[in-house]
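Recall the central idea of this unit: under ordinary conditions, the amino acid sequence of a chain determines the structure it adopts. In this exercise we apply that idea directly, starting from the sequence alone.
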Amino acid sequence: MRRAALLLMLVTTITGCEKKNKHEYVDLGLPSGTLWASCNVGASSPEEYGDYFVWGETTAKKIYDWRTYKYCNGDYDELTKYCNDSDYGHNGFTDDLTTLLPEDDAATANWGSNWRAPTQEEWEELKHNTTKIWTTQNGVSGMLFTASNGNSIFLPAAGSRWGDELYDAGNFGFYWSSTLYTSDPINAWRFYFYSDDFDLMNYYDYRGFGQSVRPVRQN
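Accordingly, the structure predicted from this sequence is:
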């Protein structure tokens, strides 16, 4: 009896995000039909922080800064991909890429072709079509987004990484979009929230930061 109860508890925990290697999603009834994953890339439950990714990279790492960033030549003004301003490109490099390609998308690379990081517009849609409450879920602080159909997703306040340090975990949530900040291509759009506020911000959202990724998909 005790063993059966323990097995039931284990199954209940796993199915919060993943069941038989198929990642779970929530239908929030959004106008676009976008479906949001139940947990972050690298997490096995909604409350787990998961892995931290530099914008345009698909694996976690130990050091997060410009020297280790895949798409620059060692410094912020030496970009080699996703750069629309020659002042920031290596030897004046520019391209027309403003949205992450599948091979550079942590959601797609880790979860498969059905999944991707949200665009800036999809984060805006989530923000404007849900109610938001700062709460604690299973001992983890974060933001609960609840749609008019009664479904909800929880985003833990996982903080962000720079160098070899984790900052603001438990107090702030920083989540990448797939959209380049074209006014200053060393940055990318991210979704930002804390206990008193939430918004899409381009302030200090350097592509070299390690931040969370919450995947989306379509029906």
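DSSP finds three helices and 13 strands in the chain.
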